[in-house]
Amino acid sequence: MRTIVIYPGRFQPAHKGHKSSYDHLVGKFGPENVFVATSDVTAPVTNPFSFADRLSMLTKLGVPSNRVVQVRNPYQAQEIVKDVPDPANTVLVFAVSEKDMSSENPRFKFGIKKNGEPSYMQPYPKDDKKLKPLTKHAYVMITPTTMFKVKGTDANSATDIRKLYINGNDNDRKQIVHDLYGQDDSALKDIFDKKLLPPTQAIRYGKPAVDGDQVLQGPTLQKEHKQKLVKILESMQHLERQASKCYQVSNEDLIPNYISEKDGRKYY
Questions:
Q1: What is the 3-state composition of the chain as percent helix, strand, coil, each rounded to the nearest 5?
Q2: In the chain, what are the domain boundaries?
Q3: How far is CA 141 from CA 98, 123, 150, 158, 239, in A?
């Protein structure tokens, strides 16, 4: 049977750790069978980069553009799955990092349904044997975590990279882009500047911005400025909620293996 591998993610931003995981999957399954799945969903804090931005980053890292697919939900990737020519003879694998499966909100859950049947998602077996086609199950493979240097410090988290970029000066930001992609790249730096910098800093790069100084500074906020600020915050919260929904995993009706007495968390 053929194996199709989907490497899903937000890639906010894409970095060397992502490329290392992609290379690992290509080495195991072949370049023609591995797809990177990501969306065009954006939100101010957690998902500032568009699909076009992510594609630029991934291709700069060396991922072929025809292996990067825009999907609505990367952790389902129906846009890829529905077009598989022979699903009864195709194994479907989703590849995610260990930290994405060990967090409080793992990307996938597997176990037993309430009717006693195994869940659709299953751990990828170590011996690669007894794999079922995607009409029966899909499998979750854990990719190795790769540490890399960003501005002299170890990194493997897109969240940490965004923080470093926002908190740095212009020279720091040039170094971060160089460390992420192996070369200076003014086009990518411009994308980072426009999508990550606070409004008062982004104005000089041509990004439309709310006049943060006028709204937030001064002894008191005028009524119209308060209303403007509330609308901005509500809009940001709405966008973050919408982005979160687009990254939800399949919600099978599973029985928890156990419930932690310490925090009440359910484990599947």
A1: 40, 20, 40
A2: 2-146+246-256
A3: 9, 7, 27, 21, 30
Task: Check residue 214 and give its pLDDT.
Answer: 43
Q: Report residue 128's pLDDT band, with 50, 70 and 90 as the boundaries.
A: confident
What tokens does 260 get? 């932690």
What is the C-alpha separation between 172 and 166, in angstroms, rounded? 10
Which residue in 123, 100, 93, 116 sits closest to 30, CA to CA? 93
The DSSP bridge partners found for residue 38 are 70
Q: How many residues make up the chain in this entry?
A: 268
Determine the Cα–Cα distance for residues 122 and 127; give it in Å rounded to an integer: 14
- Full-model pTM: 0.79
Q: For residue 26, what are the contacts with CB-CB under 8 A and spacing of at least 6?
A: 34
254-255 and 112-113 beta bridge pairing:
antiparallel
Residue with tokens 């994405």: 100
**The CATH fold of domain 2-146+246-256:** Rossmann fold (3.40.50)
Mean pLDDT of 166-177: 95
